[in-house]
Amino acid sequence: MMQCRFCKYPLENIVVDLKNQPSANRLLSREDLHNFKQGKSEWKSPLTTYICEKCSLVQLGNITAPEDLFTDDYVYYSSFSKEWVEHARLFAEETIPKFNLTNKSRVLEIGSNDGYLLQHFVSHKIPCQGIDPAGKAAKAAEEKGVKTIVGFFGKTTSQQIIKQFGVCDLIVGNNVFAHVPKIREFITAIKRCLSEKGVVSLEFPHLASLVEYTQFDTIYDEHYFYHSIVALKQIFSEFDLKIIEVNELSTHGGSLRIFLTHEANNTYSINHSVGRILSKELAMKLDRKEGFRELQKNIGLIRKNALKFIKKRKEIGQNIAAFGAAAKGNTFLNYCGINSRNIDFVADDTPAKQGKFLPGSHIPVVSMDVIRETKPNVIIILPWNVREEICQKLNFVKEWEGQLVTFIPEIKVC
Ligand SMILES: [Zn+2]
User: Which CATH number does the domain 68-292 belong to among 6.10.250.3280, 3.40.50.150, 3.40.50.720, 3.30.457.10?
Assistant: First the structure.
C-alpha cells in the first residue's frame, strides 16, 4: 500500500491517472532512439496523483530518484528566460524593504541555479548563499558572485549552511518545494536555518489553477506535490511555522507565493490574503476527493479535441510543428498519444536541447531557423502559460498564414 509522503496515511483516493509516462525533463539522444529500436525499453512510470484522506496533501503515487534527474547535464538554466530573471529582480526589490534586509542580513536560496535571483541581492550588498545540485549551474552562479553549495537541501547541507553562513533572515524556494519528495526533512531543514525573526518565501503552482483550468501537464514525474493552502497550513503548524501572507502569481498559469515565519514571531500580523485563498479552496473542496470529480473527465475532453484538431489538419495535407521543449508539453503529448508521426519537430531556443528528442513522443528538437525554412501550417505552443510572449516571438509565421495553437484549457488559435 502506498503511503502519504507527509503523514504516512495509506493513499487510496486517486485524483488523476495519466497512465505510464517517461521522465519529462530527460531529453533523448540519437543513441537512445537507436537503443530503443534494438529492443531496449524507455523508462516509464505510472503518473497517478492521489489526495491523502488525512492531511489533504495532493501528491504523486510513484517514486523516482531525483539524484538521477537533476544531473550536470540538466538542460534548464533559469537565466535563459528574461521574464524569469525579471520576476526574480522584482522579488528582490519587493522583499528587501518589506523585511528590512541590510548588509547584516543573510539570504539563502534553495535551488539557486545559476544565481538568477541572488545576484539581485548581491548587488544590494546583502550577504547571500545558494544551494543547488547542478554543478555547472553553481559554477555560473559563483561567476556572478553568488556563493553556492553543490548538493540537495536537507539534513546534512542545512547543518553545513548554519556552520559556514549562519541562520538566515530570508530563505527563498522558488519552484523547489513541490519537487522535493522528502517534504518532512525539507521543512525541518528550513526551520533549522531560519533566524528568530526570519521569513521563508516559497513559490509553487497552485492546485486551484490545476483544477480550475485543467492544467494536467503541470503533472510530471519530478513534480511530487500539488499544493493548496488548506493542506499546507496544517502541515506547517506541525513545525510551529505559520503562513503570514499569500500572493497569487501568474507564473506557470497560476502560482502562489507564501511567506512563513516561526509561530512565536509576532513581528508580522497574518495578512487577510491567507483567509481569502483558504475560503476559495474550501469552496472548491480541494481538501477532499470530491473536489476532483470533474478533472479526469475534463482532461479526456482536451485529449479528444486535440486529436480531432490534428487529424483534421493532417487530412487536408497541413504540416504541424510544435514550440517549446519544456517538461510541461511532454505530459500533454504522451497522454494524448501525439508523437513524431503527426508532429514534424519541436523548435526551442536553448542550444543544449537542440539535436535531442522529446521523451516518449520522440519528436526531434530543432532551432528556430527550421520554422522559417519549413514554414509549417500549424505550430502547437506547448508552454501555454507563456502563450502571449511566444505568439509575439513567432508572429512571423503570418507571412505564410501559419497558425499558432494552444490546447489547454481549450483550443485557442491565433
Ligand atoms: Zn497525509
Answer: 3.40.50.150
